[in-house]
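Side project, low priority. Logging it here so it doesn't get lost.
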Amino acid sequence: MSRKTALARIRPWGWYNPEYAEDIPRFSRRIAALLAGVSPATVRYAEARGWIRPKLMPGGGMGYSLNDVRTLRRIREWREVLGLNTAGIEVAFYLREQVVHLQEELFRLEEEMVRREQALHAEIRRLRQLLAEEGRWTDET
């Protein structure tokens, strides 16, 4: 058996990828609740509301990731510090989602702006070269 095959049996979800490390399910409901400082009932409630989504763990059970634990902590803070009820938490999640969407859109628009700026500079260089070939452009002009 090759080393890769042996590791695939140990890690059925594939090779470690740091980009997805925080989405890997690692914790049972009870452990996730302990880490977040909430009750297991709160974990079940957050799951029922769609605020967190357990995933299948390599061992076969359902588990929660570090991102899920962070979300549970955020819910706890919103309830305790800000005094938000369920409707307020729904609005907060919606607004966070909108912020993320707008940040992605801003990033996309910034990339588009850079592409267009580069295209304009290339066109200016091309036009200057054409004018220079015709003798109607000098660097002093």
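Brief comment: The CA atoms of residues 18 and 24 lie 10 Å apart.
Revisit when time allows.
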